[in-house]
Specification:
It is a single chain. By secondary structure, this protein is mainly β. 0% of the residues lie in helices and 55% in strands. The protein has no helices and 6 strands. It has strands spanning 2-7, 15-21, 26-32, 36-41, 49-56, 65-69. The strands form 2 sheets. The protein has a 4-stranded antiparallel β-sheet with strand order 3-2-5-6, with no helix packed on it. A two-stranded antiparallel ribbon has the order 1-4. It is globular, with a radius of gyration of 12 Å.
């Protein structure tokens, strides 16, 4: 399990959380309904490797952050 804490500006925008793998395949995409919180990912069925995640909305494309999943 991976926990990701986030805090976004409270500007009534809808946000989306995305995870991609090294081949740019979207692994996860889910809506975020609060400006602060924690995302809990069950990565037990994922292959070991490097993944990237970000939070985006219509105005912000967000910077990718790296996440390493180990066996």
């Amino acid at each position: 399990t991976v926990n990701i804490n986030y805090s976004m500006p409270a500007n009534n925008s809808s946000y989306s959380f995305e995870v991609i793998d090294l081949l740019s395949r979207k692994i996860v995409q889910q809506a975020i309904t609060t400006s602060t919180g924690k995302i809990v990912l069950d990565v037990s069925n994922w292959n070991a490797g490097v993944y990237f995640y970000r939070i985006v909305n219509k105005e912000i494309s967000g910077k990718f952050k790296k996440m390493v999943v180990e066996e």
